Amino acid sequence: MKKNILSVLAVILIIGIGSCSSKSYREVMQVPEEKFYKGQYKEAAEMLKPLAAKEDRDQLLYMMEAGYMYHIAHDYKLSNFILLKAAQIAKLKPVSVTQQVAALLTNATATNYRGEDFEKVLIRMYTGINFLMLGDYDAARVEFKNVNIELGSIQVEGKARYKQNAMAKYLSAIAFEITADQDKRADDLNFSRVEYKQIKSLMPEFSMADRDIQRIDARMDSANTFDLPQGELVMIFQSGKTAIKKSRGGLLDNPDMNATINVQLKSISLQQGVTIAAVLIALKNAENPIPKFEKRSNLASYVRMVIDGRIHRTFMLENIEETAVKNMEDDYTMMKVQIAAGVITKVAVSIAAGFASQQIAKKLGAGGFSGIIGQVAGAGTAAALFSSMKPDLRCWHTIPANLQMGRVFLNPGSYNMDLQYMNNSDQVLLSQKFNIKIEKGKKTFFTARSLN
Q1: How far apart are CA 46 and CA 78, in angstroms?
Q2: For residue 237, which of 246, 259, 365, 400 sits 20 to 30 Å off, Cα-Cα?
Q3: pLDDT tens-digit profile of 259-280?
Q4: Residue pLDDT, tens place only, 385-423
Q5: Residues ≥6 apart with Cβ < 8 Å to 405
Q6: Distance between terminal CA atoms of the chain?
């Protein structure tokens, strides 16, 4: 008996020691993230680069963070060196709801981070953008195609929440326009038109797609389809800070989960010595294992490009933070019943173990101490179980809240551009001056990022 109690205490001690033996991802990210949001992109990336090369449970996270930081630092080659490897690690491996729940009911942070669905898609998105910035348009087309492959894998997994990624589709259309002009291929030009048409069907309110379709139609009807007198500025704007994971708090504090647990408790047969009241008391301090995505600041609503006195602007194509929030809530709805059932099972087992210990103690003549022994065994087991059941708060921190596009057709030459970051009241938050060069028949890509 004494030996068994010491064994339980040893297990609890090991769990406690293991949980604080190394810095968490969030702790490691604190300084690099501070540097990143101060505009020290390269310095931040260099801090994470060694961790991105080290195989451990958080490697994918460090690869995504470092790869993105290099992207914003305009080191597109190094960014892709890291992100292309991250894409291989993040390849979707279908996991059932049952498997997801099993992971949540233990310590999910002790497992290898496999990435949220939208993060896997964004890895491919950014490798494609990097190739566009490097002028490798064929490789960019491949990566944007890989976005659709990733989306297909997600749908195979049984999650119908993803249909298309409008930003990837739009950039794919632009890449096909470029290769059409380079190789004078009408089929590539027609494919870009198909992409624009699909974007219009996905986003009927997106007026840029109407203009793109009309422009491609006019080109294809022209005798000089590939004789383009103008060049083009393509603006990719990345706005604000994306949502990050936060704890939902106590398991029973959430009315929805509380109600689900009570319904489950009333629908199952409890073992001898286990009561509904005892289960609810044991769950009083348990933390909800499913996190939530919480939005952060996003002051810039769009950017204006003022060129030669004419004003142009960007339009949103991909709302990353909304996707993150909605997908997590979809997961919560899908898994809450199984989470409730799993938690009840774990608590019931610990309470039953305590009750059994009490009965054994009575038989061994422990007298008045038998009840205490039973309480310690049951409570100790429950405490050990729920100390390890924590929400996994790991996620990609430095990506933007949303992605936007703007296009300006200009005659060849050099231009001064006033780039204005606008809030939702159409007030200028920040203004930056740039010189841009436009070449005949070519597209000039420009990226901008707001950090608050």
Answers
A1: 11
A2: 246
A3: 988 888 887 776 655 777 877 8
A4: 566 678 899 999 999 999 999 999 999 999 999 999 999
A5: 167, 170, 208, 234, 235, 236, 237, 314, 315, 317
A6: 59
